[in-house]
Amino acid sequence: MKKNIFPFDINCDLGEGMDNDGELMPLLDSANIACGGHTGDEKSIIDALQLAKKFGVKVGAHPSFPDRENFGRKFMEIEHKLLHTIILKQIQFFEKICQHQEMSMNHIKAHGALYNFAAKNDLTAFILIHLVEEYFPDTIFYCPAESLMAAMAIESGIKIKREVFADRSYNDDLTLVDRSKPKALLTDPQEVIEHVGWMVHEQKIKTVTGNFIPIEAETICVHGDNPAALEILKCIRAHFGQ
Fold this sequence. Notes:
Number of helices: 8
CATH superfamily of the domain at 9-165 and 217-224: Glycoside hydrolase/deacetylase
Structural class: alpha/beta
Helix content: 25-40%
Strand content: 15-25%
CATH topology of the domain at 9-165 and 217-224: TIM Barrel
Distance between the termini: 11 Å
Shape: globular
C-alpha cells in the first residue's frame, strides 16, 4: 500500500518508453505523461493512463519542445506563436485521450529544456501560464519552486503546485545542475534520502556548493528514466511515509 509523504505529492515522468512504468506507478501520487513532443504517442499515453487508473494515480500532460532526437533536453529557438500552438496541440491531444479513457487531466507540467527555460524566461513562462489560464482553467500547473514561472503563475491566479526534484542537484540560483556535469542526476538512494530530508524537515535545498536555500513546495519529482528510480521511490516511501 502507498504511504503518504509529508508535505509532498510524489510525481514522476512516465510514458517515455521506459520498461518500468508498471513498477513505478503504484508508488506515485501523480504522473506526468509524455504527449508527443519529446516522445509518446496515442498507445503509450493510453497504456500509462490505464496503469494510473489501476493504481489511483492522478495524471497530467507533459508537453515539450518538439525534439524527439534530443528527448526535449535541448533549447529550441521557436517563434512564440508557433510554440504556443505546438504546446497547446500536445496538451489537447493528451486531454482528448484522457476523456476517451473516462479520466480527467489533473495537471500540466512542461518537460526538460522547455521547463528549465520557462523557469527563468518571462515570455516562455507567459506562454505556458496563458495556455493554462485560457484553455485549462481547472487544471493545476506544476512549476519550479522559487522560480520566475512560479511567481508569474501565482500573480495570474492559476492553481499551481511548486515542484522540487528528489534526484537532481541544484545550483545556488535553484536552477538544476546541467546533466552533462557530475552528480547532476542522483542515483544513490541514500544520497537522495539526505537530499530530500533537507526539503522535508528544514524546507531548504542543499546546493552543489553546500549552501542551503529556503524553498516552499508541494510536489517532488523522481525521474522515470533514472536507472535507480524504483529503488529511490521505495526508499522515499519507506523513510518518509506515514
